[in-house]
Amino acid sequence: MPPEEGTADGEAVLKSIVVPLDGSELAESVLPMVAGLAKKLNLAVVLFRAYNLPYSVYGGGDGYSVINFDELIAEIRDEAREYLEKKIAELKKLGIENVSYIARDGFSSDEIIKIGRETPDNLIAMCSHGRSGVKRWVLGSVTETVVRHSENPVTVLRPA
User: Fold this and answer.
1) Residue 144: which domain range?
2) Is a pLDDT exceeding 60 seen at residue 83?
3) What is the CATH number of the domain that holds 87?
């Protein structure tokens, strides 16, 4: 079986930049670069945040607590939306008018890849810790997973 080879049948057409954010300064450090690129190429910006219940909610404690999972996930979802709306306001101050957000329940890398597949013609822009070796193996890397499995172009910015 011959090896798979990529082809260059034409130019890539980009309509938007998807920016995954997790609430950290590291993830947000990609925003100035994204704003400049969006202005220069006249691209829409889509901010994205995945959220889910922490594993600690499912177990632990005294075993007698009653947790309303629906209320808890609604609170986490609302916090994610408020955060993204704040970031939209910041980007608009930088002159980006065509900016929106998506917040979804799920695991970050899976949902980022899914958004890329659902919204063709986008660039995914992320920042990475740049971990290597044992730290990356133990902690995993959302960025690495997205780069390896996304069908979209991905740009990765490392912190200064």
Assistant:
1) 16-157
2) yes
3) 3.40.50.620
CA of 114: how far to CAs of 9, 43, 68, 117, 131, in Å? Answer: 24, 20, 28, 5, 24
**Cα distance between residue 132 and residue 138, in whole Å:** 10
Does 9 fall in a domain? Answer: no
Q: How far apart are CA 124 and CA 129, in angstroms?
A: 16
Task: Supply the pTM of this predicted model.
Answer: 0.80
Is 108 a member of any domain?
yes
**Angle at the Cα of 34 (from 31 to 40), degrees rounded to 5?**
145
Nearest Cα residue to 46 out of 148, 128, 108, 124: 124
Helices 142-149 + 108-118 axis angle, to 10? 30
Kindly tell me if the per-residue pLDDT of 139 is higher than 50.
Answer: no
The verdict on residue 11 lying in a domain is no
